[in-house]
Amino acid sequence: MEGELPKNKLMQMIDEAHDYFDAIIFSGGEPFLHPDLIELTHYAKDFVVFITTTGYSISREQIEALPGNVVLVFGLDGIGDVHDRYRGKTGAYKQLLHSIEQAQDRPKEIIVTLWKGVLPQIDEIIELAEKYRALLHFNALIPVGRAKNNFEILLNREENEEVYEKLKGLRVNREAFLVTDLHKVTEKDLGGIDLFCKGRYSINPSGEVRPCEFHHSVLGNIFKESLSGIIEKARKTDFIKSRKEGFKKQVRLDLRNPFDYHTEICHALALKSRLGMQ
């Protein structure tokens, strides 16, 4: 089907991934709409498999058919109408909660994108994650894609500071199940940022391999060459070498937005080096 990788190509990628990764993420779109998802999770039995889902139309039968190496990752963008507004679909929140409830006995994570609408609901979201025994991950909103044209939803400097301090306090004091990739670049990062995306690669439905799902640079295409060949070539580029080191030579304290090292350091470096290995 257009817009999804075929099963045989995905199995080939899983085979090649053994030499490089210990975890695989199936995301979308909506991965549960892929007809071969369940079979692919069993095929990837040697990995921790994360399935990132909107909760759309997941059946109990699908959840029960998943092997024990699977972690379900639910995308939550607010409580109630706030989630629906962000997703652009009435009833999306109700549907998501139904899917989370069906997955009560499975390992699960809830990922929350930090946008303006969600800030007043952080405490309520924490209570929801505790109720369903889910790891809670607050994601920074990276200003790429549609976010570039909708700046009104992005956090300003003061809002970033406020939520950063709040999450830092929660993690230290009592919320062991809470993680975040919201990071403020400070002097301690001059030796390199402890990047959550270090070693990460993303493959889109067209077969393009990118440094991550938010990155514009193309490292190669799996329909033209092997995944292992693409990764080996990528590892020799200045950009991937720099990423592995946490961009220690590129970290500056005069960033316009110290919370946005993604575009001000990562994407800017790739553009400067004209990374492109198609």
Structure description:
There is one protein chain. This protein is an alpha/beta fold. Helices cover about 35% and strands about 15% of the residues. It is built from 10 helices and 9 strands. The chain has helices at about 5-15, 35-45, 60-65, 80-85, 90-100, 120-130, 155-175, 225-235, 240-245, 260-275; strands spanning about 25, 50-55, 70-75, 110-115, 135-140, 180, 200-205, 210, 220. The strands form 2 sheets. The protein has a 6-stranded parallel sheet, covered by helices on one side. A 3-stranded antiparallel sheet has the order 7-8-9, with no helix packed on it. Strand 5 (about 135-140), helix 7 (about 155-175) and strand 6 (about 180) form a beta-alpha-beta unit.
SS elements, strand count: 9
Number of H- or I-type helical stretches = 10
What is the N-to-C order of secondary-structure elements (H for helix, E for strand)? Answer: HEHEHEHHEHEHEEEEHHH
- Percentage of β-strand residues: 5-15%
Residue windows where pLDDT falls under 50 for at least 5 positions: none
Q: Give the neighbour order of strands across the main sheet.
A: 1-2-3-4-5-6
**Shape, per Cα inertia axes:** globular
* Average pLDDT for all residues: 90
Distance between the termini: 24 Å
How would a textbook summarize the main sheet?
Answer: 6 strands, parallel
Helix/sheet category: alpha/beta
Q: Using only CA atoms, what is the Rg?
A: 19 Å
**Could you estimate the helical fraction of the residues in percent?**
25-40%
